[in-house]
Amino acid sequence: MTEDKFIKYISTRGDADELLFKDVIFEGLASDGGLYLPEYWPKINQTIIDSFASMSYQEIAFHVFKPYIDDSISDDKIREIIEESYKDFTNKNITPVNKISKNEYLLELFYGPTYAFKDIAMQFIGRLMGYYLEIDKKNINILGATSGDTGSAAIYGFENIPSSNVFILHPYNLISSTQRKFMTTINSDNVVNIAVKGNFDDCQRIIKEIFSDDDYKKSNNLGAINSINWARIMCQITYYFYSASRIENSENIVYSVPTGNFGDILAGYISKRMGLKFKKLNIATNENNILDIALKSGEHTIKSVVSTSSPSIDIQVSSNFERLIYDSCKDSSYVKKIMNNLKKEGTFSLTNECQTYISRYFTSDSASEDEVKEIILEYYSKYNITLDPHTAVGVACGRKQSSSEDILVTLSTAHPAKFKETVSEIISDDSFVTEKVRMLEKQEERMIIADNDVNEIKNIINETVS
Question: Model-level pTM?
Fold first, then answer.
């Protein structure tokens, strides 16, 4: 197959080189500050989609990934890496669908090593990058910011990749202690945890500034694992196809997705563009409801972050929203203009055309802290199911945006044990806390506490890499 038959990846801002798959998976921001995405969305044949009902999660993943990948890796190797990536998940179905009532389901995404949906991508990406690095005899320094779960998933994905160092920024004292300890108790010389005195948006800004310095990025062999990395999104598409194949009348599904950085729900949008038939995607936010406001008013304006029980949603700048905006208009100059305005003024306005396009695929809502508690209590008392606060946000918002004929599927993004203090206080029970999490309490932590300053972070990287 010739190179021009493979999907090329382009920047949302239009001024970066086009890349093929092998190169784009190591990229964070494009050189023009934009995000990479495929030049078109490949379609999966409906006959193949229909056959997913009899396939395993791993088989479906191969069919989802294959159109996006070039000839830098064989089909047999892709299948081998997929199998290896999910062999240690504690549920054989990888992302099982749990039927709650006639028209309500949970899509459970927390059976990986760090109890969060981020494992589904990071276990694959760590092995895939490791494969490329080995055959090219290269090393890489992985850099990422986390609002709680990406960091630990990345660390567990790369801790055994000898050709990598992993630098993870998290907001100091603004994630749960269990989320932090999943990262800081890993005793590996290639892992550096950095607690930044700021919020997640500050961590994300530092990452973007570092990656926008093209010379620094190349001289230090930096690679990205935040949801700005295309491969993260690609991996997450699979569980939409999987879940729809396990539910009757799946064309009536409304997926409610608790989302902070927008990557998880963007994957659902892409599955629809690839041919999956379902009704809508619901953006579920907490009291930091900037996306809900933007969808309903067209005005995206940064405000102060409120600390909530669902910290992974406590975000004001959802990076992957830029990919959706570009896809709604295909106008890189417009995207560049509004993103520059967001950086300088803290605000931008969506055109009527963009709003109309986005509303074809998405609804949105927000949930208060009281609503989150009510949902956690209801699920515990009525169904004997313990939810984490993010999943509760998804359920609360989904119920507001689905009707009686809809099938509500909420993405359950984390195990409740990652938020054991919050959840056990609500339900007055801590039996859901696993032995693995209890053991974390006894382990020594390793992290560097740093000021909210890009140069200080660069210095930490330099000291490790040199």
Answer: 0.93
